[in-house]
TrEMBL record:
Pathway: Amino-acid biosynthesis; L-methionine biosynthesis via de novo pathway; O-succinyl-L-homoserine from L-homoserine: step 1/1. It comes from Gallaecimonas pentaromativorans. Keywords: Acyltransferase, Amino-acid biosynthesis, Cytoplasm, Methionine biosynthesis, Transferase. The lineage of its organism: Bacteria, Pseudomonadati, Pseudomonadota, Gammaproteobacteria, Enterobacterales. This is Homoserine O-succinyltransferase. It comes from the Bacteria. The record marks 192 as: Important for substrate specificity.
Length: 317
């Protein structure tokens, strides 16, 4: 939570210049508190694993967060019991008339599938459009980030010839943005994607602020100026063994996957990997909940802030 100090105390301005979050007494006195209402649109096959991973990060905040689980794919699942889906998940029609503080849209194993061939592509676009008027801030993860860049900014799907898999050291940029408050100069985060997020292309064709990148993997973290759309191109929520599970799965399927980079000790897949990105993941989600949701969202969700139009630049050709 923010530090609360008197309005006129000299430390207030000093701390603000150091990018320390300060709430003055005037604001604190008039601030009402209520739980944050967050929707999780879970597109991952192993839904229970993903629930555990993301809810763990959302729980690492002093704020009370109420989470609703959402699905748009009603085909029979090979990885999640139908009883679990029926009991805990809601359909979009059940919530579309409500407003929410936050929305998280997960990745999906669709990196090599054209958007118009995705079974639920129209549903994804409907949710993205709905979020612009019914959600204060939306966090798009991995494939969802690529999908949102396509829908909101018209960016074409860009696919790498070889999958990025491993733990990559990203560079923190634009430290005045509250989403990266407290980040180290460089931090580790897992990637598992075919999608290509070229920093130069995104910078040229959108008004998004790029907050973290990698020389080979491209953009890792970007945000709209109003913090209502956040794009994370990796999987900070992953458990220590998630990349290993994916690697072993692909080996058994005969795909001949590349060994996840910078992941196994001594690049030996027989050794147990270690999670070295948890502190970054926790800080990213805490910053999102605090600065992009809690500090912006109205107390009365019926008074959702008006949407800003995405600032897409003209694509060449």
């Amino acid at each position: 939570m923010p530090i609360r100090i008197p309005d006129a105390l000299p430390a207030a301005e000093v701390l603000r210049k150091e990018n320390i979050f300060v709430m003055d007494e005037t604001r604190a006195i008039h601030q009402d508190i209520r739980p944050m209402e967050v929707v999780l649109l879970n597109l991952m096959p192993k839904k229970i694993d993903t629930e555990n991973q993301i809810l763990r990060l959302l729980a690492n905040t002093p704020l009370q967060v109420n989470v609703k689980l959402l699905r748009i794919d009603h085909r029979e699942s090979n990885n999640t019991p139908s009883s679990h889906l029926e009991r805990f998940y809601r359909d979009f029609d059940d919530i579309k008339d409500q407003n929410f503080d936050g929305l998280i849209v997960t990745g999906a194993p669709l990196g090599q599938v054209p958007f118009d061939e995705v079974y639920y592509w129209d549903d994804v676009r409907n949710v993205i459009e709905w979020s612009r008027t019914h959600v204060t801030s939306t966090l798009f993860l991995c494939w969802a980030a690529q999908a949102a860049l396509n829908y909101l900014y018209g960016l074409p799907k860009m696919t790498r010839g070889q999958k990025l898999s491993g733990v990559y050291e990203h560079r923190t940029l634009n430290r005045d943005n509250p989403l990266v408050r407290g980040f180290d100069d460089y931090f580790l985060a897992p990637l598992s994607r075919y999608a290509d997020f070229d920093a130069g292309f995104i910078g040229e064709h959108t008004e998004l602020q790029i907050l973290a990148d990698h020389p080979e993997a491209g953009v890792y973290l970007a945000a709209s100026d109003d913090l209502r759309q956040i794009f994370v191109t990796g999987h900070p929520e992953y458990d220590f063994d998630t990349l290993d599970q994916e690697y072993q799965r692909d080996l058994k399927a005969g795909i001949n996957p590349v060994l996840p980079e910078n992941y196994y000790p001594q690049d030996d897949a027989s050794q147990t990997p270690r999670a070295r990105w948890r502190s970054h993941a926790s800080l990213l989600y805490s910053n999102w909940i605090n600065y992009c949701v809690y500090q912006i969202t109205p107390y009365d969700l019926a008074k959702m802030p008006p949407k800003d139009e995405p600032q897409a630049k003209q694509l060449a050709g």
